[in-house]
Design a protein that fits this description.
It is built from 7 helices and 16 strands. It has 275 residues and is an alpha+beta fold. The protein folds into 2 domains: 117 residues, 2-Layer Sandwich (Phosphorylase Kinase, domain 1), CATH 3.30.200.20; 121 residues, ATP-grasp fold, B domain (D-amino Acid Aminotransferase, Chain A, domain 1, 2-Layer Sandwich), CATH 3.30.470. Strands 10, 11, 12, 13, 14, 15 and 16 form a 7-stranded antiparallel β-sheet that branches. Helix 2 packs parallel to helix 7. The longest helix has 23 residues. The protein is globular, with a radius of gyration of 19 Å.
């Protein structure tokens, strides 16, 4: 038995067992809704493992979508490498295998940074706007990273008052967010996809006494709203949130348009016989 992976190279059942045993031997640092972080092989590094778990509405809705972790790993690699190519600093170092990547250890600022180009989701509800309305300019919002509170929207005044980030940090975060937006919008437009909104996380890294901010976590259809430009078809986690069809099919479509995955390959583990 073997499994086709997103590279078409084939992931054997034995390899999955070996990978599972390897994970068990490593020291787990953190487990979130979609990823597990392990200590990396060198100081200052982390192994980021992408799970197949899908959650929505602050984890009130849950499922396991086979192949989702593979797709998000490859897509996040693609986007992070793209950021590097245009000079936007980020934590990505290299992809290790189908589900894992090596990243730089950072001190995460406890904020979700959301960039919106069109009204959708909570913004549309909050402001009574029709979904899909183009905004006058990209709007950057901030949410406190705290699942127990439902990641509440916060202002720069809150951020400064509670010391989550300095004014210089906020200036740098805004600049990074808008640069990422420019890059992602262009990439997506080139393959017929509208970048409605996305969220990123920002981390601090230290080189001696010098501190700088870099993009961390992931960039994938889990963290973006992506709509087909012609049809409006959703190609992101709203497919899961709103029961609009196969989440894996939606993510696979994004990967194929970007050339991340060969057209004949599939990220879903499908057992087949080997002669």
């Amino acid at each position: 038995m073997h499994y086709e992976d997103a590279n078409g190279s084939g992931e054997t059942h034995l390899q999955r067992l070996i990978d599972g045993e390897s994970m068990a031997r490593r020291k787990k640092i953190y487990e979130g809704k979609a990823k597990i972080l392990f200590e990396g092989p060198e100081p200052g590094t982390i192994v980021q493992y992408f799970k197949d778990d899908a959650t929505a509405f602050n984890a009130e809705k849950k499922d396991v979508i086979e192949g989702k972790g593979v797709l998000n790993n490859m897509l996040s690699e693609y986007f992070m490498n793209g950021l590097t190519s245009v000079g936007i600093p980020n934590h990505f170092m290299k992809r290790l295998n189908m589900r894992e990547q090596l990243v730089r250890s950072v001190e995460i600022i406890p904020l979700e940074v959301i960039v919106r180009n069109y009204s959708a989701g909570t913004m549309a509800k909050r402001l009574g706007m029709e979904e899909g309305t183009q905004l006058p300019r990209p709007i950057v919002e901030y949410c406190l990273k705290e699942d127990k509170l439902g990641d509440p929207l916060v202002t720069e005044e809150h951020i400064a008052a509670f010391g989550w980030a300095s004014q210089q940090d906020m200036d740098d975060i805004l600049s990074l967010a808008l640069r990422v937006n420019d890059f992602l919008s262009g990439v997506m437009y080139g393959v017929g996809i509208k970048l409605v909104d996305f969220k990123i996380e920002i981390g601090r890294v230290y080189d001696g006494d010098f501190m700088r901010l870099i993009v961390a976590d992931e960039i994938s259809p889990d963290s973006c709203r992506l709509w087909d430009i012609e049809t409006g078809q959703k190609l992101d986690k709203d497919v899961f949130r709103r029961d609009l069809g196969s989440l894996t099919d939606a993510y696979t479509e994004v990967a194929k348009r970007l050339g991340v995955m060969p057209k004949g390959a599939t990220p879903i583990a499908r057992p087949t016989l080997i002669n």
